[in-house]
Amino acid sequence: MIIERDLLISLLKLTKDGPTLIEFINKDSRIASDIVKKLLEKLQNENLLYLKEDIVESSSDKRLKIAVKAASLGADVERISTSLRWQEFEDIAALALERNGYVVVKNTRFKHSGRRWEIDVVGCRKPLVLCLDCKRWQRGMKYSALRRIAERQSERTFALAETLPSPALKIKCVSWNKAKFIPVILSLIPSNLKFYDGIPVVPILRLQDFLIKLPAYIESLKYFTKEFSYL
């Protein structure tokens, strides 16, 4: 288990900027070459990477699954996070939203009440506007930390709803009559806490399931309603 965990960490680090060589993984992980080869073949069978002769390649969605697997084996989540590209976590979230019919905008920056705000990912599918805060660096959220994170995301989401419509922001929902703005926290690994004050905490690999089930329990979640009227 420890050997596989160390190999996964090396694999994440060395494929961060593209394909790498098996010999580099062998040196970085300090694992015997025959064991490295067997573990890489196992990961390929799990559809987590692609082997071609001595080259190892893994796409963003597969790298995120590798990160979650490493965390489940006890790897330090902060160490895993440094091996993920800055936009990788957000890109996976955006892709999941798009595949479920949402129009997505990433890194939405705006001003409201004299402050600057930013929301990692905004997804619009009438009448819903999902505002995602991607927490890829967390160690599994304790209640006190989750409270601060949830409160801040609630503030960001409310600020966005109040700011729209704005010529500076290209958010799809402004063409609707009414929208429900929902703050969401997206985490790298599962947490014992699934909600705080009606704000969902969703593990990245369960985002698809969350999006499918969302219409059924929308009224149990915290959201801000905004009506758009045009004269």
Query: Which parts are unreliable, with pLDDT below 50 for 5 consecutive residues or more?
Result: none
Which outline best applies? elongated
CATH classification, class level of the largest domain: Alpha Beta
How many strands, which pairing sense, and closed or not: the largest β-sheet? 7 strands, mixed
Radius of gyration: 20 Å
The helix-and-strand class reads alpha+beta
Q: How helix-rich are the residues, as a percent range?
A: 40-55%
**Percent range for β-strand residues:** 25-35%
- So, CATH architecture of the largest domain? 3-Layer(aba) Sandwich
> Between the first and last Cα atoms, what is the distance in angstroms?
64 Å
DSSP strand tally: 10
Chain-averaged pLDDT:
88
- The number of helical elements comes to 8
The topology string of helices and strands comes to HEHHEEHHHEEEHEEEHE
Q: Could you give a short description of this structure?
A:
The protein is α+β, with helices and mostly antiparallel strands.
Describe the structure.
- This protein has 231 residues and is an alpha+beta fold.
- It has 2 domains: 2-82, Winged helix-like DNA-binding domain superfamily/Winged helix DNA-binding domain (Arc Repressor Mutant, subunit A, Orthogonal Bundle); 88-227, Trna Endonuclease, Chain: A, domain 1 (3-Layer(aba) Sandwich).
- The protein has helices at residues 2-14, 22-29, 33-45, 60-72, 77-82, 88-99, 143-163, 207-213, and strands spanning 20-21, 50-52, 55-57, 103-112, 115-125, 128-135, 178-187, 195-196, 199-203, 224-227.
- α1 crosses α2 and α1 (2-14) packs antiparallel against α4.
- The radius of gyration is 20 Å and the shape is elongated.
- The termini are far apart.
